[in-house]
Write a structure and sequence with these properties.
By secondary structure, the chain is an all-alpha fold. The protein has helices at 9-40, 44-49, 57-77. Helices cover 76% and strands 0% of the residues.
Length: 78
């Protein structure tokens, strides 16, 4: 939609540059999401959590990581 917008020379250059950057970032986000999913789905705790309705691999991974952090901080305090 924005690619067909007609702007003045410098505005058009800035817009096209920003759109190219956003597309590159979107590609990198997709790549990293795939990597996170691959790692997460090898974790038995994550696999168990995603059986709960509404919980996907990313949220399950965050819960597992957070619980590990909480357990570690309790162990350090003890």
């Amino acid at each position: 939609m924005l690619r067909i917008l007609k702007l003045e020379f410098i505005d058009d250059a800035v817009l096209r540059s920003d759109l190219t950057l956003l597309e590159a970032l979107d590609t990198q986000i997709g790549f990293m999401e795939d990597k996170i999913a691959a790692v997460a789905l090898n974790d038995e705790k994550v696999k168990l959590l995603i059986t709960m309705p509404g919980l996907k691999y990313f949220s399950a991974s965050l819960l597992v990581a957070r619980s590990a952090t909480s357990i570690a901080s309790v162990a350090i305090r003890s």
